[in-house]
Amino acid sequence: MHGSDHGLSRRAFVRSAVAIGGASALAACLQREETEDVPQASLSPDELPERQHAWNDFLATDDHGNVEPPEHHLLLGLEYVGDGPADAEGERERIEAALRTLERAYERGNDGLAFTLGYGPRYVDRFETDLPETVDLPDPEALAPIEDPRLDEYDALVHLASDYGHVTLSAEEALTGELEELNGIAVEDSFDGIFDVADRRTGFIGRGLPAKNQSGVGGIPDSEPVPEDAPLFMGFKSGFRKTQASEDRVTIPDGPFAGGTTIHLSKIQLHLHQWYEQDSRDQRVAKMFSPTHAEEGLVDGAGHNLGDSSGIADIPGSAAEDARNPGTVGHAQKAARAREDGEPIILRRDFDSTDDGRAAVHFLSLQRSIADFVKTRRAMTGRDLTEGSVGSRTNNGILQYISVRNRANYLVPPRGRRALPEPNPT
Ligand code: HEM
């Protein structure tokens, strides 16, 4: 095989290896991917930004300045099994050494590795003290009347992302104590005996990957309808420069965790039979963006023509007016109602998944406080918009095609406090 065909089948192969995990999947990946190009870090850990989530300056961008997220993603839900954590001095040093190993082994970015480590409410509950008022980290909860998600109770979450599947797998192996050397760097320490991996979720994002991975996947018609140019299963590009919050906007400004952020993570199953088999192209555009986008033909293909913005802030009328006539409201149109000072308040870093053979989205977003996520999600749910033919789910954006299976919230501390932090350090 030649050119992009070869490239795509390699990427699909790597996607399944990442999903399987372990030493043999890693070996297979190393064989399949061009490994000689992965650079060691050019910056020392001390030279990296204090924000764990400062990825954008290190990630690739397209011609319009939109960030191009890494293609492969791995989420590890961790359970604390150490002796502390309230009295965890030695463990803290070990965690920090393990993380610095990743930072030395790979450049931060698509060609290397981008990662964060966050802590859940369950971790905080292990201490006598509580988080300061400057951190908003409630227990996760169901956020819409139509959902009944499992509420994750992991102590911590590692998010690993790279254009190379073998990099995410190698980083996982290093963190779990299975490797002595990582990309030519000696592995200084691991999470072994401190954190166990209790949950493993994987995924991918990028033009062509969903099409290549749709075959035989639950939630997608057998006709394999996902277009080749789509970076996500639902067929459209997401995450334009001007429809994302900036990293500054999602950073905690004050207190001991200043420079940190929060993660909301949900697992959302997709049901795309009606989407692709009964809805017309115009209906899909109207439900994803807005009826105006459909009427005026603003979206070509997956929407790569839109440049650096979906244009959702520039369309006339309002979601409430569209709910009355024509009786459909768009997902982006609804979510944009949560903007503050004209800008979105969450930074989406979500991606698709075929974990367990089912099409899903691991919806991961960063925000200064979980309240900002809840506000945005309520705007997206749009209970106030059920007029005309807009029901609690029908013609109400994409609600009919998704079901939320899991929810979780995490605090992502600044790098200086990322290793087993006390909830209220002085
Ligand atoms: C199946 C899951 C989802 C898919 C496929 C999806 C897809 C999209 C697409 C294609 C857009 C328009 C392009 C863009 O501006 O990025 C968009 C916008 C947006 N979505 Fe989603 N989305 C999903 C779930 C969610 C969830 C759970 C939230 C959280 C509340 C959310 C929040 C937003 C926001 C804030 C915007 C931008 C609105 C603005 O311009 O201000 N999305 N999404």
UniProtKB/TrEMBL annotation:
It comes from the Archaea. Signal peptide: none annotated. InterPro entries: Dimeric_a/b-barrel, DUF7405, TAT_signal. Residues 321-341 are annotated as: Disordered. Pfam families: DUF7405. This is Deferrochelatase/peroxidase EfeB. It comes from Natrinema salaciae. The lineage of its organism: Archaea, Methanobacteriati, Methanobacteriota, Stenosarchaea group, Halobacteria.
